[in-house]
UniProtKB/TrEMBL annotation:
One of its GO terms (biological process) is protein transport by the Tat complex. This is Sec-independent protein translocase protein TatB. InterPro entries: TatA/B/E, TatB. It comes from Streptomyces spinoverrucosus. Keywords: Cell membrane, Membrane, Protein transport, Translocation, Transmembrane, Transmembrane helix, Transport. The gene is tatB.
Length: 146
């Protein structure tokens, strides 16, 4: 609970507590705080037991820490029964994207002798790829579109 408090901070808190509550009342305040913490822990444990009983025997190994999404995902990824490690290692997104990018940029338009319209389509594709390569060029202004 107090893993991130250093020794200097702990000494400062003790001195501050002595100054605020005084040396006579400090033991009583510490007892009251500890009693409250114990009651909260007991209430929490009884609530967990009630939930486990209500869920039934198939959830007797249920851990409430698994409700945290990060813990649940980490636990499932460490579980190799599903073969997720093989899938994760076999899927290289950067390689796939590089292949697609290379295919798009190095593809030369094939002239089609079947019809003139497909040649126009190829020209438009080439023009749009050329436009993407030159970010300084602006598209032509269309007054009717604005």
């Amino acid at each position: 609970m107090f893993n991130d408090i250093g020794p200097l901070e702990l000494v400062t808190l003790v001195i501050l507590a002595v100054l605020v509550f005084g040396p006579d009342k400090l033991p009583k305040v510490i007892q009251d705080v500890m009693r409250t913490v114990r009651k909260i822990r007991e209430f929490s444990e009884s609530a967990k037991q009630d939930i486990r009983q209500e869920l039934g025997p198939e959830f007797k190994d249920f851990e409430f820490e698994d409700l945290n999404p990060k813990t649940f995902i980490r636990k499932q990824l460490d579980n190799d029964d599903l073969g997720l490690k093989e899938i994760r290692n076999g899927f290289d997104l950067k390689k796939e994207m590089a292949e697609v990018t290379d295919a798009v940029h190095s593809r030369d338009p094939e002239p089609s002798a079947a019809s003139g319209s497909s040649g126009a389509r190829v020209d438009m594709t080439k023009k749009s790829v050329d436009t993407m390569k030159k970010p300084d060029d602006r598209p032509p202004f269309d007054a009717d579109a604005t």
